[in-house]
Every structure is written in C-alpha cells, then in structure tokens.
Amino acid sequence: MTEPAQRLIGKTGKTANALELRDLSVAYRVGGRNRAVLRNLNLSIGQGEAYGLVGESGCGKSTVALSVVRYLPRNGSITGGAIALDGQDVMKLDAEALRRARAESVSMVYQDPGKALNPSIRIGRQLTEIFELAGISGQAAEDRTIAMLNRVRISDPASVMQRYPHQLSGGMQQRVAIAMALANDPSMLILDEPTTGLDATVEAEVLDLIAQLRQELSASILFISHNLAVIANMCDRVGVLYAGMLVEEGPTDAVFNDPRHPYTVALLRCLPRGGQRKDQGRLDTIPGFLPGIGADIKGCAFADRCALATERCRTEPPPLYDLADDRGRRLSRCHYHEQAQSLPRATPYNVALPSRQAASPAVLRVEGLNKTYGSHGHLLRAVKDISVSLRPGETLGLVGESGSGKTTFARLLLGLVPPDEGGMIELEGKALAPRLESRSDEQVKAMQIVFQNPDSALNRSHSIRHLISRALKRLAGLSGAALEARLNDLVRSVRLTERHLAVKPRQLSGGLKQRVAIARAFAGDPRIVVCDEPTSALDVSVQAAILNLLADLQSKEDVSYIFISHDLGVVRYLSDRIAVLYLGRIMELGPSEDVFAGPHHPYTEALLSAVPKLDQAETARIRLDGEIPSATNPPSGCVFHTRCPRKIGPVCETQEPPLNEAEPGHSIRCHILYAELARLQNKVVQPEPA
Amino acid sequence: MVFLGGQVLPGNVGRAILGPFADQRAVDALNHSLGVDRPLLTQYGSWIWNFVQGDMGTSYIFRSPVAPFVIDALGNSMKLAAVAFVLVVPIGIFGGVIAALNLNRPLDRIISLGGLSVTVLPEFVTGIILILIFGVWLRWLPISAAWPRDAGFFTQLYYLILPSLPLFLVLFGYIARMARSGMIEALDSDYTRTAVLKGLPWRTVIWRHVLRNALLPTITVIATQTGYLIGGLVVIETLFRYQGIGSLIFTAARGKDFPVLEAGILTIGIVYAVATLAADFLYSVLNPRIRLGTDQ
Amino acid sequence: MSATDSSATIPAPAPNDANRRGPLAEVFFSLLRSGTFLTGLAIVMFWVACALFGEHFAPYDPLADDIINALAPPSAEHWFGTDQIGRDVFSRVIVGSRDILTVAPLATLLATIAGTALGLFTGYFRGIVDDIISRILEAFMAIPVVIVALLAIVALGTSKTTVIVVIGLSFAPIIARTVRAAVLAERQLDYVAAAQLRHESALHTMFVEILPNVIPPILVETTVRLGYAIFAVATLSFMGFGIQPPSPDWGLSISSNYGMIGGGFWWTVLFDAIAIASLVIGVNLAADGVHGAFND
Lengths: 690, 296, 296
Hints:
The complex is a heterotrimer of chains A (690), B (296) and C (296). Chain B has 296 residues and is mostly helical.
C-alpha cells in the first residue's frame, strides 16, 4: 500500500485529479474470512468531470463510494491501494482531517432519501448545521439555506424548512438531500443510485436538476447506477465494473455504442431497446452467474460466462488494454477486445411465435371494477371504474407509477382483495365471485400470479420440489407417478434441472427463484397469469432470460398475461395491448404500438419522455411539475390536470373526461380531441420515441 | 356492595378471586380502547364507582376502612420505586449508550453480559446477597427498610438504598439492553451516515442525530417495566419488611382479606395504566412522526 | 440490474459455501462457536446432573434433621454449615434444583404451546377476534406474574400443578405476542397469497406454510421464558406460594432461613442464593446465545 501511496503524493500539484483510486482493494469479513469486493481498482476523475460507474448487483459499485468517504460497513476494510481526493491521500487522514475533508470537499447522495434524512429534526436545522460548520450561523445560515433550497428548485423553502422529512414526498426528500450535499460547495459529489426507487416522472425531474446543477457548480461527479440509460444521459465517461474490477472504461457514447468488452456487449444486448417486441426476436442473455464476493479468480473474471473465452482467458488475467481511439482514452480488460462485438449470442435471436387469432372470444372481461379503501376517515379510491378485456394468448401491459392502482387491480382480479359492489369480472364467459374462497377450484387454477419478489412468494421453509409438487397436487390434482412426470416436464420447461429440486429457495439466485415461481404459476395450466413486476428485482441479464421464458411459455401454452411493470421497455417488449394507469384510472388503453407511437394521452406522453433512453440524443423532454397527488384526495375533474402540460382550461378542473375511443381499440381519457392531440404532439415529439 | 356480599359466600372463593382480576382487565382495557365486551362490567360498576370516590370498602382483618391503608402503602411504595427509577433510568441508558459506542469491545461485553446477568436474578436473591454484604458483613446500611418515626428525607433515603438496589439491578440490564440496541440501530442508519458525511464532529453526530432517535423506543420500554417493578415490590417489601402496596397485597392474600386485596390490585392497575399513558404521551411528543402525522 | 442493489452494502456470502447448509444446521454450528451459549449450557447441565444424581454424592440426607448440630457454621464436616434444624446445607443445595427444574420447564412448555396457538390464530385471522384477544392479553400482561400467582394460589391452593399452570398461563400471552408479531409479518408475504391461490385450508396455511417460518422467534422466546420461569418459581417459593416444604428447594430454604440473617447465620441463605443465581444466569446466557445465533 505504501508504494502507490507515495506515487500519489509525488503527484500532488496543480493538476491533481478530483478523485484518483490506485490499486484499491476492499474486502468484507463474512463468516470469519476476508472476501475481496474490489480488486486493484484504478480510476480517476478529472476536475469538473462526470464519471459514471455501472455494474450489476454485487459488483462492488457502492463499495467504491463508501471507500472514498471512508465509511465502509463495520465488516469492511481497505486492504490495499490508495484513494486521493484533489491529490490528498484520504487513507492518511487522521480523524479530524477526515472530518474536514467530508465537511469541505466531498459529499454524497444515496438511494432512499427517506432514510438519509434524520426523521426527528426539521429540514431547516439539518441544512443550517452544515453552514454552521463553515462558521456561518444565525440569520446568515438561514438565508444560505433558503438560497440552497431555491437552487434545488424547491418553490417554498421557508415552509419546507419547518417540516420534518416524513412530511415531504420522495422527490422532495431527494432534492433536500442534494441541497445538503451541495451546501458546502464540494469539489467531489458522489451520487449512489440517487434516483433508484423514485417514480419515472420524479426521477426525470431529479436527473434534470442534477444536470442543471452541473452547469452551475464546479463539482466533479461520481455517478453510480445500475441503469445504463441514466449513466448515458448524465456522464462524460463511464466505467463498467465487474466482480470488483474495471472491465471497460471510456467516453460514454463510445462505450455504449461501440463496446470493447464482451461483458459490456452482452449487457447492452440484454436490454429491450428501440421498441423491440417479443414476436420480433428474443433478448440476449448472459449465461452463468457473477462470481461471488471473495471468489478466487484465476484468469479473466468473465471467462466462465464468455463465449469468446479461450484457454488463455482462463489462466492469464487480462490487463487493462489501452485502446487507441480518436474519441478519447479507452480501456478494456479483455485479451480479445478487438473481437468483443463478435461475441456470439447466448440465446438464439430467432423465435417462431404463432400469430394470434384475433377473432377468439375474450378469456377475461372486466367491467366497471372499483376498489375503495377507508383510511382514517378518508376514502382511498385505489381502482376506479376499470373495464378491460383479454383475449387468449394476449398480453395486456399495465403501466403506471406508484399509487396508480396497478397492483391493487391485479389483486382484485385474483380475488385476493374483494372489489367494491357493482363491478364484474368474467372468466371465459362466467362471472367470478368477488372473493377467492367462493370461486371454484377450476376458476382459481385458471388465474395465477407471478409475484414481484420471489423471496416473498416462495416459502423459505420448503424445498423447491415441495413448492412445485404442492402446486401440482392442488392445482392440477395430480399425485404419484403422474405428478412426478409432470413435475419433471414443468421443471424442464422453465429451464431448471433436477438438482435444483432438493434445495431451499435461499440457495438459488434471484433469477432461478423467479423460474420456480413461474413453474408454480403454470402448474395448473392456467388461462391467465398475472405478472406483477416479475423482473424488477432482477439484474438486466437475468431479466432478459425471464422475459424470454415468459414469451416462450406464452407461445407454447397460449396463455394470456396481465403484465405489470413500471419499465416501459419491458412492457413494450412483452405486451400486445397496454393500459396506462394514473391514480386508479385508465388514462389510455390501446394496442401496444399505438400507445407508444402516439398520439397519446398527455400523461403517457410525459411518461415516455421521462424515461432515460440509452440510444437517443437528448431531445426536448416533457417535464411534469409537482408530485403524484394522493389517491385519498385526488384532484377534481381530470385527475391529471394538476400536472398536465397540455391542460386546456377550466373544463379540465371541473369535469372528468370519459375514456373516449379515439381509434378502433385505442381509447384516451382526455378533453383534448384526438386529432388535436395528434397535431400538438407531432409538433413537439417524434412519433417514434425510444 | 352487592359485589362484596357475593364473594364471601362459602365455596365461592375462586369466583371472588377472578372478580378483582376482571376488574383489572376492565381498567386497562378501557384505557386502551373501548368496545371490548364484558358482561361482568356492570356487576362491578358500583364497586368501581365507590372506589373512584375514595370508598374502597372495609378490611376484614383490621375492621376498618381500606382506603387509608392503601393510600399510605402506595405512598411508601412510590418512594421506594422513585429511588430505584431515579437511579436506574439515567444509569441504564448511559450504560447502554456506552456499550453501543464500544460495540464488541470489552467494555460492551462487560456491560451487556453483566447487565443481562443482574437483570435475570430474582429480586429476593440479589436482595439477600446485598443484605449479607452491606447489612451483615460491612454493616453500612440497615437491613430493614422500616425507618424510625419522624425520620427526615435523608434518613428515609438512607433506609431505602438497600431495598431499591435489587429493583435497580433488575431494571438496569433491561434498560441498558434496549438503549444499546436502539443506539446500534441509529448508528447504522442512513441518517447517521448523512450526518457523519456532512463533516459534523462525532460529538454533534451523537448528541444531535443519534441519541434522540435511539432512545425513543427505550421510553416505551421503561413504562412497560412498571408492571415488573410492581411485582418486584411485592417481594422486596416483604423481604425488607416495608409497609408498601406490595406487602399489603401479600398480607391480604395470605389472610384472605378480599377488600384490601381488591383495592390494592385495582390501585396497581391504575398506576400501570397511568404509567403507560404517560409513556405514550411522552413518546408522541418526542416523535414528530406521530405528533404531526403525514401530510401525504 | 437490481433496483434494490445499492442498499446491499454488506453483500451476502457467496452462494456456494456456508450457505449450502440448512438454516437450522447453520444456527447449530454458530451455537457451537458461541462462548456465551456454551458457558450457559455447562452451568445448566451441571444443575440438571445434580437434580438427577445429586442424592448419590450428597454427604447427608438433605431432609434429615440433627437438632444438636443446628445452625453450625461451615466446617470440614458440613461444608456449607447446617440450617436451624441441623440439616446439611451442602446436601440440600445439591439436590435443591430438582423441583424447580421440573416445574419451570413444564410451565415454559405450557406457555409455549398455548402462546404459539394463540399467536398463530390471532395473527392469521386478524380482525375483531384478534382485537379482542389482543386487548385481553395486553391487560393480562400488565399484571405482575407474582400477583397473578398470589391470587390463583390463594384461590386454588398450593401445588406444583397450580404453579405450572399459573406461570404457564401468565407467560402464554407474552409468547403469543411474539408469535403474533411474527405471523403478522409472514402474513404480508406473498407465499401466503400463493397458498390462498391454491385454495389451501386455513389450517394448512397456518401450520404448514407459516409455522415453520416463525420457529426461530418461538425458540428464542422460549429459552428466554425458561429463564423467567425459573425466576418466577424461585420467587413464588420464596414467598411461600410455590414449592412447599419439606422440599430442599432453594427459594423455599431462603424463605425459611432469611429471618435469621440479622443474627449472622449467613450460610443458611448464601449458598442457596448463589445456586439460584447461577442457574438463572446459566439459562439466560444460553438464551442469549440462541438469540444471537438466530439473529446473525
């Protein structure tokens, strides 16, 4: 550790990088053993530069951030290398110097702002204490706080200062956290998944804010995210982290458009991009798993999962090759970086999907479904007047932000939650009882669900064999040899093997667990499977495999899906028709292509525009003001009028527009006429976003 | 008085014992929430009404009204409990905080394991050992809590030190443990990370950001300990021959003096309910989340 | 890439080593590594051995009196001295654990079974029945065990069975509360909804789906309760409401001898007090180890 440290100190001078990591190694102590998380990581961020660090879960990206500020978890320790902030060796700082460095030169914003703010101290106090550290107190500190809150575009700073964190929405909380981070005008700002967990429209606002602040302030930025598109839009340079090592680095657009490491190549192929759909071909996947932390890596860390790997890759650790490139310095940790893009697909692209018969009668019909919860004397209309239908083999995508009622709607269909009186759910022409207990076994097995989180959905006390057999017994009525035979079929069809059956869920990775959940849902040959965000807890490479599996099963079994997701790319890939929900209401319903192509509802328009895109230059984006209103107190008239950029006048505030059929099969809930929407939107946005 | 008449009928002793028991529930349940259906309630209505007005009935043994006994005894018990509480709350919290700040170091082990060990010892065991050490061998403290007539405040305090120590020990480990786990949770929280990364001095981080959030749950726990404390009083007052509510109940139970027994237990119920309410109140005052609710 | 990614700052261990063991096996191995647990277990096993085989190596008959040698101080003949009717204290301490080690575990077992059943039903069905039962249990928990026991024993008379039932039923609500909280958390998990979507019966869901997942908190609570059961039995015996003469029970011995400690006959109570202390601490050290093993 001393050798690289000395080199750094020698460099201390005018042109020091804002952040420089030299051979940084970090380990976590787990089960009595030190396990390497970061392995000889080298990275430098220039003054004023925005550097993005991407990688899948467990690759060590948050550990980088925590190492820089020397705030590793109790079981973590820096085992080698050096960290320099503005040329100053962070590892050599004593407690007081470290405190001053945190106070003056480096700040950090992380995921989940609700937890990052102290719940029992007013917002104002949490900001003024930063100024007090710098010797500004009293009225001056208050004034600076107000200025800072204004800077993060909080419109009523004085009243926000009087509030406690829980009285602010997630987006506001994150603005406050950003204000706190920038209050001391740091030279280095670390953003660790700052928008993960926020709704799309709110995320867009926060990202815009960060982009604007970059123009105003001088801070260098280390932006950590799992979301490639966010990094693509925010950063100058990007580093791809894999198993605690940098595998590729370079200017953002160069790396994303012309990747030189097989991992980056594969990762980009996993994403449904450019409006790709299930009938156009499968997504690529990455076989195998990320090496566990502390794994002993002999050659290239990616070799086991790489189709290009040779014997050399397995034995000789590749160095970071410096690639000559006219667009800026590029690095790739691959012996065969010049061939990286010829990486063969792990999953064949071609897929023969039968074209759907449009004429078959609806398998599911929902008419005027409502759900109202009573909470503390308020009525919460979680789902209001939803009517949809579903044909055999069709996928209906449900899109919406938090509070849109999409999960409640799914639970109503399944009978897990009884709807209000008056609505109707019809399965294959027969009315379904509102409560699950009153439905027949046939009806119950015909409609199943794949939950979002397999850890919650699979009973952790039971073996995989028990989980699937029990479903086969109850739903398919099988036993003995017949059950055994069907079990093996089912397990094969979700691409699991015999050896997975004996284990408990916790011994499987997230993707494998989700396959078990899918197998269970398909046990009784369902007509409809509700997929409630089935991939949102998974890494992209795993997500692609699950989406492929769902598409394959659908074409094989002719099952219909109700597919809920907040990820528009994913919904678009899998859905034939899409319903856009906002505050429990359907705002737009139509064939997937029409909804995406437009003309669309102003909310859909904003939603589409809010999603960061990987392969599109920044266009004029539509930004929504304010937060999603509470469903206990929805706005009068059109519920979207408070945020609608296309509001036409008082009619929007007083009268709720009906869901008008604009074109055959395509309905929009808006006072603006369809033709007018088409005119307005063609002026502003391209007809084909993403 | 119908109620009292009913319970002296021969063969109905068990019924009579369950009677005051149900009262206890009634009082607590009423404090928590109404709407719990109890047909027995009306039966005790008049008795409770009299109780509220200060008429607690007449003792079988002493042939005199119960109220003065109970009030005197309660006063004595409160003195004893107050001494124990005044000592244990700050010291227990301090111990827990210190342990958490030295997590997994020797000091933490000593406080945690030591606290655990003394907390689980029955009061009469610690009481006996303390009497032997301080009363019999060292002769520093009186072994009976019965102070001389007209004793001043400090004399009374002197007599109460030894009896309050077992109570102190039982509560110490419990409070220290709660404070410690509250501290650990707060120290590991994101908001503490935020405060540290702001560059605030460690002292400020602890005092301003950690302590308040860490100790909120401890407050509730202290109130729930009132129940245990009262159980402990029965033992301690007997051991030290102290005229408190605990020994009053004990004597009444042995002598089957039902009016005294009932009055004593109802009094305890009220004390417990008041303590719980006070803790809830304090908790909501200190916790903005409850005080202000959510705006959204 | 996972949305919950960056919150996982402490990565889980690699899936292919320690994790391969089942969760219970893992708890078992971590118990074997826990010094706290092993120390506690050793102490408890010592007293269990004494209870089982103590008579064979006790120098005297623990019940045989010897008035001439009454109140003899510790000597070579009587290591721990003799009590007021000349019984050998050492022999009595050796076998004195027998009753408490029968009554306390049985009471704990009763409490665990009743508490688990109550907790499962209230947590699973929720609703109004849960509200009512929970309120009653809460009120019940407000009364100190000593007082409940006092009343029940006055009503029902003293016997080991009464003590077991009283302590068992007093502790049941506490275990029920723990189980209920755990069941409520499990109830939110999607596997319960998945069971409903297979039209499983409520009993199947409760006992086959939920129960295995709430075993860890039940085990932890049971070991902790065992410590408190010993606490309670000893206290009741001391108060004269527990184990009855002529048993050499520790609490009972202290009860009949502590009146004389003012006279300096310390050996009649000290060894019994230390014995109780060691047993209670032993059980709680073991409980602490179990708690730690399940929460790591």
